[in-house]
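Checklist before submission:
- one chain only
- standard amino acids only
- sequence pasted in full

Submission:
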Amino acid sequence: MKVIIPDAITAFSVVQSVALGFALAGNDFSTRVIRAPWGLVPVVCLVAYTFYAITVFRCQHAEDTLYVGSEESKKADDWAKEIRRWRIWIIVLAAALSLIAYGLTRYGPSLFKGSVAS
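Returned file contents:
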């Protein structure tokens, strides 16, 4: 199975989300993130993930251009459409996880005041 560029971009977005989550778990990085201006981190995350999604869309369009006139079966075409949908949903999920990790880092202590866990 060959890995194509849209798959690699999608995988990178997930790896970046996981790396950000681990970095936010560290004291030094999370302290710096909390001190950053309020909207800086979410805006940078959204710009990055939007860039990934646009790049995947453009790669998929390029694939379509290359395969014009080819004899693909209906079932293969249906699978290709499903895979393309999932690529975008995975990027959206990675963006959501990054924003949730940021929100919990920034607001987590105040969210759990007075709860049984604290």
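Reviewer check: Residues 6 and 56 are 5 Å apart (CA to CA).
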